[in-house]
Structures are given as C-alpha cells and as structure tokens.
Amino acid sequence: MALPAQLRPIQHYLRTAQEHEKRDPVVTYYCRLYAMQTGMKLDSKTPECRKFLVKLMDQLESMKKELSDNESITQEVVGNAHIENYALKLFMYADNEDRGERFHKNMIKSFYTSSLLLDVLSVFGELSEENIQHRKYARWKATYIHNCLKNGETPQPGPAAMEGDEEADEFGAEGFSGQAFSHGGSFRADPPSQDQSLGPGPASEIGFAPGPGPVPMDPPTTNYNNIQIPPGAHAPANSPAELPHPSGGVHLTPEDFTRAQKFCKYAGSALQYEDVGTAIQNLQKALKLLTTGKE
C-alpha cells in the first residue's frame, strides 16, 4: 500500500523497519510503533491515511504476538536498552569511520539510521540530553558528508563547528527528502568480505563494510556548538571509574531501586552485543546509586 503524501515524514522509519525485518525484528517493531504514533499526529482523519495507519496497527499486533516471548517487546526497559544500544553501535561505527577519514555511503547511512533510531527512542519517554546531542550530531554529519561527496569536496573528519544551529535543526523526519534515501537503492550496503568482518554487534549484522584495519576509538575532546559526545560512547573504559566506598545508612527510595535495576538491564543488553564499555558504564552507575543514593 502506497504511503499517503500527508504521512511522508514517516517514510524513513518505515524503510528502516523493512530493512531490519530479518536482521532484528525488535528494531522493526519499534520503528513501526514510532511511525504509527507519529502518523496518528500527522493525519488520522483522511480516509487514505486512516486506512494506512490501521494496516500498520495490524502489522504491529501481529508482530507482538509473534514476539510474545521476546523480553525486548514485553518489557519496555529492555526494549529501550536494545534500541539505544543498537543506535549507539551504528553511531560508533560511523564516527570511527569518519575519524579515520574513510568517507563512504555506508557510514553516511549509519549516521542517519542512528539518528532515526534515537528518534524512535521517544516511544519510551523523553530522550536524555546525551541522546539528543548524539541525534543532532549524527544527522548533521550525515548531511554534511553526503553533500561534500556529492559536490566532490573532502569532508573534514571528526567534530567541527556546525554552520549554525538552524542547519542542524532543519533535518526533520524527512531527512534527506529525495536526495539520498528517496528509494534506498543507492545506499544499500555491500556485505563485508570475510576478512573485513566488524565482529559482533548491529553494524556487522547490517552488513556495513568497514574500511581497512582497526580504528583507534579515541574519545572526542572538541565541542561542536556545545555538543559533546561523552567518552563512554566511543571507547570501553580501561579501568572502572573510582567509586565511592559504601557508607552505612544510605537511604534508598523505591525509585532508586527501579533506576538501579534499569542500569543493570541496560548492562545486560549491552553484553548481548559484547559491548563491554557500555556494560561497565551502566554497572558503575548502578553501583554508585546503591552506595551513595545519588546518580
């Protein structure tokens, strides 16, 4: 069924959902859920839009039944961690390619898909400031590198001053609207050769071919319009951060226990992707909260 013009802003989320149907049905489910929720706000009254959205709801119901034994669907906190880890894996892959000055269509698509999945995270509630920054940077980088390659220019690697916040904010849900992703074909990733495997994690599952050789994952130190990506997003910690010694008589509220439990689930989800850095980071947060009562 063709996408009605009024619902065009959700097309990239639906395409991302379709691309992941076999690779990661959890990503597919939440992309469709976000598209449906956004579509309802855009136009739920016009007959063709209503018909399209009802079909989308049916797809979601069907997926929910099929995935009824999947914790990422039945438990929001696990689903949230799954999508967030996936988005940040794509971001790290693209960011490392960028810093290694390997500019290509796969890394552009990785940046852009990462920004879409960070949008999708809003189905679980408000985005953290950190994820808002990642999303803005990823969307700006994708457009900047795409335009450089299109115009035959060499992009500047790593963080750089954005040309005003207006440019970064112009990337709405339509993103590249007709330039890069209108049909998806020109941005399809080639499967990596055996000796180029990215190893475990979403980037390799999607089949993004990495550039030659390992890329050192140095944390950024530069601000780009006050947007700073935390070091933990790029490199696993070499040693656990110093934690305060447990002090007796710390008063923990039920909310503190819920938050600590959430950090532990995030860590568990990160370990599924063998993402040690994110796992350590979340376990440290849980430990600090339990020992001091503060995050």
Automatic annotation (TrEMBL):
Swiss-Prot/TrEMBL keywords: Acetylation, Cytoplasm, Endosome, Membrane, Protein transport, Transport
Principal location class: cytoplasm
Signal peptide start and end residues: none
Localization per record: Cytoplasm; Endosome membrane
InterPro entries: Vta1-like, Vta1/CALS_N, Vta1/CALS_N_sf, Vta1_C
Region (Disordered): 180-254
Top-level taxon of the source organism: Eukaryota
Domain Vta1 C-terminal: 254-291
Pfam families per record: Vta1, Vta1_C
Quaternary structure and interacting proteins, as annotated: Interacts with VPS4B. Interacts with CHMP1B. Interacts with CHMP2A; the interaction probably involves the open conformation of (polymerized) CHMP2A. Interacts with CHMP3. Interacts with CHMP5; the interaction involves soluble CHMP5. Interacts with IST1.
Name assigned to this protein: Vacuolar protein sorting-associated protein VTA1 homolog
Organism whose genome encodes this protein: Nothobranchius furzeri (Turquoise killifish)
Species classification: Eukaryota, Metazoa, Chordata, Craniata, Vertebrata
